[in-house]
Design goal:
The chain is an alpha/beta fold. The protein has 11 helices and 10 strands.
Length: about 260
């Protein structure tokens, strides 16, 4: 497959769709694909407030390309931290846009990590998610910690220790994804959500996304409320949209996104 097409970007009104395009490899991420994704995300910075992330064909993402990684180790090729799988996932969390995972099919190991680092997730009824690493006598280095953020301890342990895959309906019930939809409605549904969020002020979206990762795990209620008020002040310092929106709301006007 042409290396230039490993990640496909479609620009829409107010949002973009980023699609992993290695269907013959179940969309496993080799180094070229990781570089392509990092470059695509960089190119979209500041231009779109929302990015839908999905896969091609029957897989969402099978995680890291283990065959390439194994071949590199045998050849003595040192991994580049700047283009590692960890770097890709951290870049999603650090990106100013809100990410929506549209889980179109199989998501294994690093594919589950991708779901976890996205802010929202919609899954096809055909989706299947799992962490197979224990079957290879190892810990799911990225999927493990990121899933522990999303699920209760027992549910996270079930996925990690049994290696059993869960379907979209289970993922929704457990809280790994926000909702599950019929397969042919997956992208339309994800794009409806993206278009709605894309109406909102990009600065407010970026700061609010960052706040999700900045609040300490253990914090008192007063501290949490002060943190939230501080974020409002930060948005107002950077854009007039926040204060103007509150003023309009206080007058009873309908705001963007309200039905």
């Amino acid at each position: 497959m042409n290396e230039e097409n490993l990640v496909v970007v479609e620009e829409k009104e107010g949002y973009a769709v980023l699609r992993i395009n290695r269907p013959d490899k179940r969309n496993a991420m080799n180094k070229a694909a990781r570089i392509a994704m990092l470059e695509a995300m960089e190119a979209l910075k500041g231009r779109f407030g929302v990015i839908v992330l999905t896969g091609t064909d029957v897989s969402f993402c099978a995680g890291l390309d283990l065959k390439e990684a194994s071949a590199d180790r045998e050849a003595g090729v040192e991994a580049d931290p700047a283009t590692s799988w960890q770097a890709v996932n951290v870049a999603i969390r650090a990106h100013p846009a809100v990410f929506i995972a549209a889980v179109n099919g199989l998501a294994l190991g690093g594919g589950v990590t991708l779901i976890n680092v996205c802010d929202l997730a919609v899954a096809s009824e055909r989706a299947s998610m799992g962490m197979p690493e224990m079957g290879f006598a190892t810990y799911p280095g990225l999927a493990g910690p990121s899933t522990q953020y999303s699920l209760t301890r027992k549910r996270h342990a079930w996925m990690m220790f049994t290696t059993e895959r869960i379907d979209g309906a289970t993922a929704e019930r457990w809280g790994l994804v926000n909702k599950v939809v019929p397969h042919d409605q997956l992208l339309p549904e994800a794009e409806v959500i993206a278009a709605k969020i894309g109406q909102f002020n990009q600065t407010a979206l970026t700061i609010s996304k960052g706040a999700m990762d900045q609040i300490p795990v253990e914090i008192d209620w007063d501290g949490a409320f002060n943190f939230g008020i501080g974020k409002i002040d930060e948005i107002n310092r950077l854009t007039a949209a926040g204060s103007e929106g509150l003023a309009r709301f206080s007058k009873g006007e309908r705001l963007v996104g309200q039905g």
